[in-house]
Amino acid sequence: MSKLHVFNAGPCLLPQQVYDRSIDAIKDFKGTGVSVLSISHRTKEWGEVMDEVRANWKELLSIPDDYEVVMLGGGASLQFLYVAMNFLEKKAGYLDTGTWAHKALIEAQGLGNAYAVASSADRNYCYIPKGFEIPKDLDYLHITTNNTIKGTEIKTDMDCPVPLIADMSSDILTRRIDVSKYAMIYGGAQKNAGPAGVAFAIIRKSALGKVSRYIPTMLDYRVHIDKESMFNTPPVFSIFVMNETLKWLKDVGGIDAIHALDEKKAALLYSEIDRNSFFKGTADVEDRSIMNVTFVMAPGKEDLADEFLADAKASGIVGIKGHRSVGGFRASLYNAATIEDVQALVDCMKGFEEKHI
Ligand SMILES: *Cc1c(COP(=O)(O)O)cnc(C)c1O
């Protein structure tokens, strides 16, 4: 579609195949003669997409049989409220590892007793807290596996003595996970699983139904599981594009293949950041995210930031300005970004250094 190198943090770059098939379906959905934008969600053809998208999730992540996958509007931010509504009875613990983790905690506090079991706010969330105690009497522990803004990541499935709920918005479908260790996994699609407009939730059915509060119909996961994500009109087009994204991922070899590529892309960029005297990473090395690479100008070189951004723009590099809370730069290396994209950024950083030495 373009010769640009797109590192946007979200909505993310999607594979060309996904754009092409989405365009085709806008013109004619599955040979029905009707656009996917206008197809009734009660048709057989649409029902097939819903079945397929659930099956693709289950296949890609080896989701056990006692879990269900639902697709919902409202983004990951509405899931913050869903989680508390459906799981918070007496007390919930949150691992406070960044901007989104903190927002999830605040949302739960509006409904009951929720608190941070550990936090890395003391150093602007540049690391993942370790060795913290998880009280056995929590209804659940909520974690954010990849901190999209701060550039840190929890890269293993932790052992947890209470139901574990994870926001995996920005690192879902990038590594093999042991779904059975989680009561629930959720995220907004727009950072690796599709376009904006739909969120996914992977829920262990037996973890539901344990709270005594009234749950409004639209916020009750049991309703959406029972109605197979079609209690009301689902975000049809977003789900269509999500399904195409999952199909693409299967075509390129699935989770293990994409994980190997993602690691390679991240290693390429981090090694340049560490080598190049003009740049410096912001996250602790051991907790660095392989999806969102955050870095700044090295000390004393801060006023060159605008010049670097201009050079990057001239090289066709898009979307690397850092989030305002961290500053500097952030390159999001989601699944559709290629080694060539990352190499273009690395070459630009090398060129910048040569120009100034
Ligand atoms: C982007 C993001 C969110 C918010 O997603 P929305 O769909 O915009 O509500 C939540 N959590 C994480 C980890 C994110 O990266």
Care to describe what's here?
With 357 residues, the chain is an alpha/beta fold. It has 2 domains: 16-251, Aspartate Aminotransferase, domain 2 (3-Layer(aba) Sandwich); 254-356, Aspartate Aminotransferase, domain 1 (Alpha-Beta Complex). Helices cover 35% and strands 16% of the residues. The protein contains 9 helices and 14 strands. It has a 7-stranded mixed β-sheet with strand order 2-10-9-8-5-3-4, with helices on both faces. Strands 11-12-14 form a 3-stranded antiparallel β-sheet, with helices on one face. A two-stranded parallel ribbon has the order 1-13. The model has no long low-confidence stretch (mean pLDDT 97). Pyridoxal-5'-phosphate binds at residues 10, 75-77, 100, 144, 148, 167, 169-170, 188, 191.
What is the CATH class designation of the largest domain?
A: Alpha Beta
Distance between the termini: 36 Å
Taking all Cα atoms into account, the compactness measure Rg is: 21 Å
Structural class: alpha/beta
Supply the number of helical segments.
9
Shape field: globular
Oligomeric organization of the protein chains = single chain
- Major sheet, described briefly? 7 strands, mixed
- Spans where pLDDT lies below 50 across 5 or more residues: none
What spatial order of strands do you see in the largest sheet? 2-10-9-8-5-3-4
CATH architecture classification name of the largest domain: 3-Layer(aba) Sandwich
Bound molecules: pyridoxal-5'-phosphate
How are helices and strands ordered from N to C? EHHEHEHEEEEEEEHHHEEHEEH
Q: What is the CATH topology of the largest domain? A: Aspartate Aminotransferase, domain 2
The share of residues in extended strands comes to 15-25%
The helix content is: 25-40%
CATH superfamily of the largest domain: Type I PLP-dependent aspartate aminotransferase-like (Major domain)
Mean pLDDT: 97
- What's the domain count? 2
**Beta-strand segment tally:** 14
